[in-house]
Design a protein that fits this description.
The complex is a heterodimer of chains A (363) and B (372).
Chain A: H1 11-36, H2 40-45, E1 55-63, E2 75-77, E3 80-82, H3 84-89, E4 91-92, E5 97-102, E6 109-117, H4 126-132, E7 136-140, E8 145-149, H5 153-184, H6 190-200, H7 206-218, H8 225-248, H9 253-261, H10 266-277, H11 279-295, H12 298-303, H13 313-323, H14 328-348, H15 350-359
Antiparallel strand pairs in A: 1-6, 2-3, 4-5, 5-6, 7-8
Chain B: H1 8-48, H2 53-80, H3 84-117, H4 131-138, H5 140-171, H6 177-185, H7 192-203, H8 215-222, H9 238-263, H10 267-275, H11 280-291, H12 293-308, H13 312-317, H14 327-337, H15 341-371
Helix pairs in contact in B: 1-2, 2-3, 3-15, 4-15, 5-6, 5-9, 5-12, 6-9, 9-12, 10-11, 14-15
Chain lengths: 363, 372
C-alpha cells in the first residue's frame, strides 16, 4: 500500500493537477510576454500561441493551369481532384499535399503546398522602443508610414521610481520609531493609541481621498511627488506599525536593559541596536510597501491627476488601455515594462515578502 | 523639610540654569521648524526647476527620504536639551507622535470629514440630512453596484480559498513545491492595471470573420462556437470574468498562508489517523481543514476586504460600464466624474461601514493577545 508509506495522494494525481493549475496561472502572463516581442502585423493576424512550433502549409510549387481545362467541371492536379469551388477551399491529395486555387476562375494560379514545421517566429524590439520613446516614432503599416508620439513610458518609469522610493522609506522610518515607542516605552494612553492603529488597518482609503485632496489643493500640493509620498505614508503606516511592533516587541529584553544600564538614550538604542536587529521585518514591510506603491493606481490617479510629466506607470498604462485599446503590440510591451521591476524585486526577495504576509495578514 | 526653606542663592542659580536650558531648547525648536519649512518649500523650488527629469527625480528621492530622517534627528536633539524628567515625558512623543499624526490626518479625520460631506448636497452648499444615503440604498444603479459587490465577495473569496487550499495541499506533497508556489504566487507582484491588460488580451474579441487573437475566443471558435464579448455581454455573468482576474492574483496569497498552516499541523495525528485506516480525503477534510480553520477565517477576511475595495481592475476593464460597477468605482464616478460630492461621500461611508465588522474582529484578537 503506497498510502501508508506517507505518500498521501497518489503522486501522479498530485503532479498532474499541480501542473495543470500552474499552466493555468502561467499562460496569461506568458501570452503578454510573448506578444510583446511580436511584430504588430503578426499580433493582429495570429494568436500568440502560434509561435509554438506547429505544422503549417508551405507552398512548394505554383503554376498556371492549362488554359484548355474545363474550369466549370472537375479538375485534377497533383493527385487532388475536385471542382473549382472545392479547389478554392483547398483539397488534400492522398500523398499529404494540398492543392489550392488562388484567384478567380479564369486567370487563377494553382499552388501545391506541403506541411512543414513552422520556423523561428519573427521577433522585434520595436514595441518596446515605441512605448518607451518620448519623441515621435515612425509606424510602418502595410503600405503607409505614419509618425506619432511615443508612449513615453521611460518618463513614467522615472516618475514611478521618484514616487515609490520615498513612499517606502518615509513610512518605514516613522513606523519603526513608533513601533519602538509602543513596544519599549511606557506612556499614558499607549494601549488606546495602539488600538487606534489596529482599527485603522482595514479602513478603506477611499474615504480619505476627498478631504485630503481638498487640503492638497489649498497647499498647492496636488500633482507633486510629495503629495503621493505623504498619502502613501498615511495609508501604509497602520500596517507598518503593526508589523514592526510584532517584531520589535519580541526582541530580547536583556539586550535592551543592558543598553539602558550602559546609559544609552532611547534614540541611541533605536538607531544602533533596534534598527539593525529588525532588518528582516523592515525588509518584509519594504517589499510590501514597494509593491503596493509601485502598483497603486487609485492614489496616484487622485493626487497626481492629469498633471503632465508626473504620471506614474500604472496611470500611463491605464491611459493606453483607454486610448489604444486594440494596439496590442503597445499594450503588451507597456504592460511588461510596468511589471519588470516588481517582478525582479519579488523573485529576488520572495522569502522576506512571504514572511511579512504570514506575520500581518490583515491589510 | 529642607526643601521648604532652600538657600536663596542656590534657588536663583537653579532658576537661571532652567531659564538657559529653556532658551536653548526654544532656539532648537525654532531651528526645527525652520528646517521643516525649508524642506517643504524647497520641494516646490525643486518641482519648478528646469533640471533634467532624472536629476530632479533622484534629488526628490533623497529629499523625501533624507528630509524625514533629519526632522527626527532635530526633534530628538531638542528633547535631549531638556531635564531628564522632561526627557522621559517627551521622548515617547518624538517617537510615536509623528506616526499618530499621520494616521489621524490621513485616515481617522477624513472619515469624519467625509461623513459630514455626505450630509450635504452635490456641491456641498445645502444640508440634506440622510437624503444621499436614501439615494445610495434605493437607486437602481446603486443596487446593481451592491449586487456586484456581493458577487465579488461570494465568488472571489470562495474561489480564492478553494484554489489556495488545493494548491497548498498539493504542493506540500510534490517535489516541485517551490517552483509551483512561485508560479502561483507571481501575479501578486503585478499591478491590477497590468493584470487588467493581461486579461483584456485573453478576453479580446474580433469580428467572427477575423482570426481570434484572444485566447478564450480562439478556444471557443476552435470548439465550433461563436466568439463572445466576454466582459460586455452576458450580464450579470460578465462580472465573473472580472472576478477571475482577482482570483488569479489573490490565490497566491491564500496559498502561502494555507501552506504555512498545513505544515504546522501535527504529523502524529495524521499518522495515527492513517494507521486507523482513514483515507487521504478524509484526513484532509476531518483533520487538516479543522486544524487550519483560524487561518481560513483570517484569509477569508483579508480577501473579502480586498474584494470590497476592488477598483483598478473594474476601471481598466470596463470603466464600470455593462453593469460591472462596484462600490469603489461608483464612488469614483459619482465624485470625480459626475461631481456629485454628497453622493460620492455617502458611498465612501457605506464602504467604511462594510469593513467595521472586520475592524471589531481585529481589535478583539489584539486585545485577547495583549491580555496574555
Amino acid at each position: 500500500m503506497a498510502k501508508s508509506k506517507g505518500n498521501p495522494f497518489p503522486r501522479l494525481f498530485v503532479n498532474v493537477t499541480l501542473i495543470v493549475v500552474c499552466l493555468l496561472w502561467l499562460i496569461p502572463t506568458l501570452g503578454l510576454f510573448v506578444s510583446s516581442f511580436r511584430p504588430r502585423d503578426e499580433i493582429m493576424s495570429s494568436g500568440w500561441w502560434s509561435v509554438l512550433p506547429h505544422r503549417v502549409w508551405v507552398t512548394t510549387e505554383q503554376f498556371t493551369p492549362d488554359p484548355s481545362i474545363d474550369r466549370a467541371g472537375v479538375m485534377t492536379f497533383e493527385g487532388a481532384t475536385g471542382t473549382f469551388e472545392q479547389l478554392r477551399q483547398g483539397i488534400e491529395s492522398p500523398d499529404g499535399k494540398r492543392v489550392v486555387w488562388i484567384g478567380n476562375r479564369r486567370a487563377g494560379t494553382v499552388q501545391v503546398q506541403e506541411k512543414q514545421w513552422s520556423g523561428m517566429p519573427a521577433t522585434t524590439l520595436q514595441n518596446y522602443h515605441d512605448v518607451l520613446a518620448g519623441k515621435n516614432v515612425t509606424i510602418q503599416g502595410n503600405a503607409e508610414e505614419a509618425a506619432r508620439k511615443g508612449e513615453d513610458m521611460s518618463d513614467a518609469f522615472i516618475n514611478s521610481m521618484a514616487v515609490t522610493f520615498p513612499a517606502v522609506v518615509i513610512p518605514i522610518l516613522m513606523a519603526a520609531f513608533a513601533a519602538y515607542g509602543f513596544a519599549w516605552m511606557r506612556f499614558p494612553g499607549r494601549k488606546l493609541v495602539f488600538a487606534l492603529m489596529v482599527a485603522l488597518l482595514v479602513v478603506p482609503l477611499q474615504i480619505a481621498l476627498v478631504p485630503v485632496l481638498t487640503d492638497y489643493v489649498h497647499l498647492r500640493l496636488n500633482g507633486t511627488y510629495m503629495s503621493v509620498w505623504l498619502a502613501h505614508t498615511g495609508f501604509g503606516l497602520p500596517l507598518a506599525v503593526f508589523l514592526l511592533y510584532n517584531y520589535i516587541s519580541t526582541l530580547p529584553r536583556e539586550i535592551m536593559e543592558a543598553a539602558i544600564v550602559d546609559g544609552a538614550s532611547h534614540f541611541k538604542i533605536f538607531w544602533r541596536l533596534v534598527l539593525p536587529l529588525s532588518t528582516p521585518a523592515l525588509a518584509s514591510f519594504a517589499i510590501f510597501q514597494f509593491l503596493w506603491v509601485w502598483n497603486d493606481y487609485l492614489v496616484a490617479l487622485i493626487f497626481i491627476g492629469n498633471v503632465p510629466g508626473v504620471q506614474v506607470l500604472t496611470m500611463r498604462l491605464a491611459d493606453m488601455v483607454g486610448s489604444r485599446g486594440s494596439d496590442w503590440h503597445l499594450l503588451t510591451a507597456g504592460g511588461f515594462v510596468s511589471m519588470l521591476l516588481p517582478l525582479i524585486v519579488f523573485f529576488s526577495l520572495q522569502r522576506y515578502f512571504v514572511r511579512g504576509l504570514t506575520a500581518g495578514s490583515v491589510k | 523639610m529642607t526643601l521648604l526653606n532652600p538657600d536663596a542663592d542656590e534657588h536663583s542659580a537653579e532658576l537661571a540654569r532652567a531659564r538657559r536650558r529653556r532658551n536653548r531648547a526654544l532656539l532648537t525648536l525654532i531651528g526645527g521648524i525652520a528646517a521643516a519649512i525649508v524642506l517643504f518649500e524647497g520641494f516646490f523650488m525643486l518641482r519648478d526647476s528646469q533640471a533634467p527629469k532624472l536629476v530632479v527625480a533622484l534629488f526628490a528621492m533623497i529629499w523625501g527620504g533624507g528630509g524625514m530622517a533629519i526632522l527626527y534627528l532635530i526633534a530628538n536633539q531638542l528633547v535631549e536639551f531638556t531635564s531628564s524628567q522632561w526627557q522621559r515625558r517627551l521622548t515617547p512623543i518624538v517617537f510615536v507622535f509623528p506616526a499618530i499624526a499621520f494616521v489621524v490626518y490621513f485616515l481617522a479625520l477624513p472619515a469624519v470629514r467625509t461623513f459630514i460631506a455626505s450630509l450635504f448636497d452635490r456641491d456641498g452648499s445645502n444640508f440634506v440630512g440622510l437624503a444621499n444615503y436614501i439615494t445610495v440604498f434605493t437607486e437602481p444603479f446603486m443596487l446593481t453596484t451592491f449586487r456586484n459587490n456581493v458577487l465579488w465577495i461570494v465568488f472571489g473569496a470562495s474561489f480564492t480559498i478553494i484554489f489556495g487550499l488545493l494548491v497548498a495541499a498539493l504542493a506540500d506533497r510534490s517535489k516541485f513545491e517551490n517552483l509551483a508556489k512561485a508560479i502561483i504566487f507571481m501575479p501578486m507582484a503585478i499591478s491590477l492595471v497590468g493584470a487588467g491588460v493581461i486579461w483584456k488580451f485573453i478576453y479580446a474579441v474580433r469580428d467572427p470573420s477575423d482570426v481570434q487573437i484572444g485566447l478564450l475566443n480562439a478556444i471557443v471558435v476552435a470548439l465550433g462556437g461563436e466568439p463572445q464579448a466576454w466582459i460586455a455581454m452576458l450580464q450579470p455573468w460578465n462580472n465573473l470574468f472580472l472576478i477571475v482576474i482577482v482570483v488569479w492574483m489573490q490565490t497566491g496569497y491564500a496559498m502561502v498562508l494555507f501552506s504555512a498552516a498545513i505544515k504546522s499541523v501535527s504529523t502524529d495525528i495524521i499518522e495515527a489517523a492513517r494507521v486507523d485506516g482513514a483515507g487521504e480525503f478524509k484526513i484532509f477534510f476531518s483533520i487538516i481543514i479543522p486544524s487550519i480553520m483560524g487561518t481560513i477565517v483570517t484569509v477569508s477576511a483579508t480577501v473579502i476586504i480586498f474584494t470590497l475595495k476592488i477598483f483598478d481592475v473594474v476601471l481598466v476593464m470596463t470603466g464600470g460600464q455593462y453593469g460591472t460597477d462596484v462600490i469603489a468605482t461608483q464612488f469614483y464616478n459619482q465624485y470625480f466624474v459626475n461631481r456629485n460630492f454628497g453622493l460620492g461621500s455617502a458611498i465612501a461611508i457605506v464602504l467604511l461601514l462594510t469593513v467595521i465588522p472586520v475592524m471589531v474582529y481585529n481589535l478583539r484578537q489584539f486585545n485577547k493577545r495583549e491580555a496574555l
